Amino acid sequence: MIRNLSIYKNINNITLKPIYFINIKRNFSTTKTTNQKEIQPHQPQKFNIKNKWFDISSRSAFLLLHQCFKSMFEKTLTKEEIDKVFKNEKIKYQAVFSQVPSKKVFDYDYSLSNLMVASMLLKDKDLGKKLIETFELRKSEIPYSSMIERLEISNKGHLNLRVTDEYLKTILKLWIDSYSDSDSYDKDNERSKYLIENLKFQDDKDLNETERENKLLPIKNKKVLVDFASPNMSKELHVGHLRSIALGESICRILEYMGHDVERISHAGDFGTPLGIVLAHSLETKADYLKHIQDPTCKSNEPIIPTPKELSQLYTTSKNRTKTDEEFSKRTLWTAAQFQKGPPIYDDVDGKQIGGSDPIVYNAWLALCEASRIGFNKVFKMLDINVNERGESFYRDMLPGVIDELTRLGFVDISEDGRKCIFLDKTKDKESQVPVVIQKSDGAYLYATTDIAAIKHRVENGRQWVIVITDDSQSGHFQQVFKIAQDAKWLDRNETRVDHLSFGVVRGANGQKLSSRDGTPIALVDLLHESIERSKQATSLSKSFTRSEKLDITQNANNVEINRLLDTFENNNDNNYNDILNDEKHFQKIGMGALKYYDLTHRNNPYVFSYDSILSFKGNTSIYILYCYTRISTLLRRIDFNNLNLNPNLTEFKEFTEKERNLIFIMSRFSDVMKNTEQSLKPGVICDFLWDLSNSFHQFYEAEKIIGSERQDQKLFICLATQRILSTGLHLLGVETVEKL
Questions:
Q1: Cα separation of 592 and 532, whole Å?
Q2: What is the residue-wise DSSP string for 601-640?
Q3: CA 565/CA 287 separation, integer angstroms
Q4: Which helix (DSSP H) or strand (DSSP E) does residue 47 occupy?
Q5: How many CA atoms lie within 13 A of 194 on its CB side?
Q6: What kind and span of H or E run contains 301?
Q7: Which pLDDT belongs to residue 327?
Q8: pLDDT of 393-431, one tens digit each?
Q9: Fewer CB under 10 Å: which end of the chain, C or N?
Q10: What is the pLDDT of residues 505-557, one digit of tens each?
Q11: CA-CA distance, 163 to 52, in Å (whole number)?
């Protein structure tokens, strides 16, 4: 037990608020403090998420190609042929572009992979050749044709294309432009050549959201509500909560980045029968944390706040008591029904209670919920999670009206024992269905009732997109909730998008649900602390360069200037990085990021929890991505990048080498990766992209001489762009960057 009145009274102020700024570490930057150059880490910079590096949708390669090929089809086919392909009643043709799977096998970047479908509709095997002829003869008339270097028909009938280096240069400059003091893009700027201006097309005026997505048009900015975390009061957060927390925070960041107005809500379980069980037991046993409520003569003014573990133990004890004490079980129902009535109501004249809950029960409920929040918020802070609590009790006053309206609509049946139920399938006999119970015979409400009220309230308050994140065991429940809201005409899915994002369980090495030795769920806070300790073991820090860093320097140190920089850095190294060795926050960033990243790569499926896999330097892990990030930081610090005063607008970018081109091509996919993630709500898409980018950078880094090369400035800008993409992507996943590993 702990005593802390100030925290206890102000717990609602501890609730974390949404964050609107992205922290971007500029680890390569330096500051001049003396006449002699000293290589020091730059202070973290912030920028508003609305000011992205560039407009995502307007830089989509797939969207550019669609506009280009749409024009090619129009200039190649007659009106009758166009109708036969694009307005076919059975098969509505839509060009599908895909990335060429292997650059080692193919010398192309993209493929129109369903060209054969159009050929089949026209019964014309030479359609691909005709499109190429049109492209070559009328290139100047085709929008965005300058991004295509060449076209070719593959043996399988696909139309392959390779983008120009000039197009890739525009992508590179997008990411490094903000390094200089240059103005934003304008229509006359060379880099605006591949910008889809205004994003308005003649044929998209009357399209609904699904049709817009199918045509790869951008999703219109929406007012979004993301329901995640949502812990139950009087229970310690366990490892399963990590999944909802990591996914919810990442989804919020991604949608905010894409321009949506996002509200983060934790639909905490503060209103159900389980709380009635705990409160009934606590009141009857005169639990310490309720002494100031139950005993007016209590000398201490400071309430005793139970720890999360004590709350969980209290719940277990109370729950076990219901299995052996039938009379106690009945009293728990009364207790739950009491606090569900809301605050006590008193007569203004005589001060007598005229309604609401029993005062002692209600105050005990408040105390239990506030004590629970203290534990939740400590974990949320460790994980850098920002969410506002709006628990089930928020909808208390709406529940009678919701039930009355459903009753008037004829949806509600009353069972023999007095429960109010809804049978969803009107075409089947009620005897063959399991109904949705919305009110018990004693008047108590259920989870379904508050969830139905929640979706109604959210839609009525202007939310155009509602996302609920829970484990997959609740998938059926939310489909029922959404259907009831639709049948009641509260939810129009043509106007409001609703998604239930489900996830599988976390398993141990034995294949069973991850738990402690005694079979109970592992406390999330214990998992987080263990992850921090493991990250200390997994990373290798030293006061001087690591062996790999020294090898990197040796390979590049071919002139006096580079050796001087090396000496300068090593002389200042202890002062700059010695504090990292003892910085708990450094390892917390690594450990928390590793857990969240690994979880996001397995969004839909259960996975086996393994620290060795989570903290591995190999494979698709945050450690591997951070290694790439810190490798770039070391390189840019070594060259004293900021003091070079490079200007990308004055740099002549020469023809790319194979490794450079492969790396920048992956950069060019960023816009489409973000659009894909926005539509699919799968942050794992970003994980895969960052992994590809890191792999390509390492290949470039190992093969190319950077410092001291003839094209040093160009290569440094490539490194800078790579790091900025890594930094942006990691932030969207909820992973903080670090100075060194």
A1: 7
A2: TTSSS-EE--HHHHT-SSSSSHHHHHHHHHHHHHHHHHTT
A3: 66
A4: strand 45-48
A5: 29
A6: none
A7: 94
A8: 999 999 999 999 999 999 999 998 999 999 998 888 888
A9: N
A10: 787 766 676 665 555 678 899 989 998 888 887 765 433 444 455 445 444 44
A11: 25
Chain centroid to CA 259: how far?
14
Say how far apart CA 375 and CA 371 lie, in whole Å.
7
Q: Half-sphere exposure of residue 523, counting CA atoms within 13 Å on the CB side? A: 17
The CA dihedral of 30, 34, 35, 40, to the nearest 10 degrees, is: -20
- Residue 314 CB neighbour total at 10 angstroms: 21
What is the amino acid identity at position 624? Y
Domain 514-732 belongs to what topology? Isoleucyl-tRNA Synthetase; Domain 1 (1.10.730)
The token pair at 563 is 């050796």
67 Cβ contact partners less than 8 Å away, ≥ 6 residues apart: 143, 144, 196, 201
Task: List beta partners, residue 447.
Answer: none
Q: What value does the mean pLDDT take over residues 714-738?
A: 94
- Tokens describing residue 444: 């108590």
Residue-wise pLDDT for 695-720, tens only, equals: 999 999 999 999 999 999 999 999 99
Burial of 682 from C-beta contacts in 10 A (0-12 / 13-18 / 19+): buried
Assigned CATH class of 57-214: alpha beta
Q: Measured between alpha carbons, how far is 690 from 684 in angstroms, rounded to an integer?
A: 10
Tracing tokens 């400590």 back to the chain, one arrives at: 378
Size of the chain in residues: 741
Taking the domains of the chain in order of start, what are their residue ranges?
Answer: 57-214, 273-377, 514-732
Round to whole Å and give the CA distance between 663 and 676: 20
